[in-house]
Amino acid sequence: MLENQVAGAAIGAAIEVHRALGSGLLESAYSECLAHELRLQGIGFETEVPIAINYKGLVLDRACRADFLVENCLVLELKSIEKVEEVHKAQLLTYLRLMNRKLGLLLNFRVPVIKQGVYRVVNSL
């Protein structure tokens, strides 16, 4: 599955960023550095990807934004928070449904070891 390979590469990039910066910075710093690391590794991505919502004929073209869309198949949602809650996972699942994607990763950088901050979210479509 392509998504799993891309997820492995994205996690590797996040590990590299976290190893260099540590924990405790703002999400925006991790986002910029992760984008740079993905570029260095030759991994294709988009940032701040607009997500449209169609509600009973009302179309909201930019109702929300995904932090990253990697290789057009993996959605990344970045956080730098004390504790990941179920609502954060639900947010990513909603993004996956609206974007018609199967796999997303919630990456929380405010942890001692980044592997403790990686959460896989799957949309069964």
Automatic annotation (TrEMBL):
Q: Give a Pfam family name.
A: PDDEXK_3
* InterPro entries noted in UniProt: GxxExxY (IPR026350)
Question: What is the name of this protein?
Answer: GxxExxY protein
The species this protein was found in: Thiohalobacter thiocyanaticus
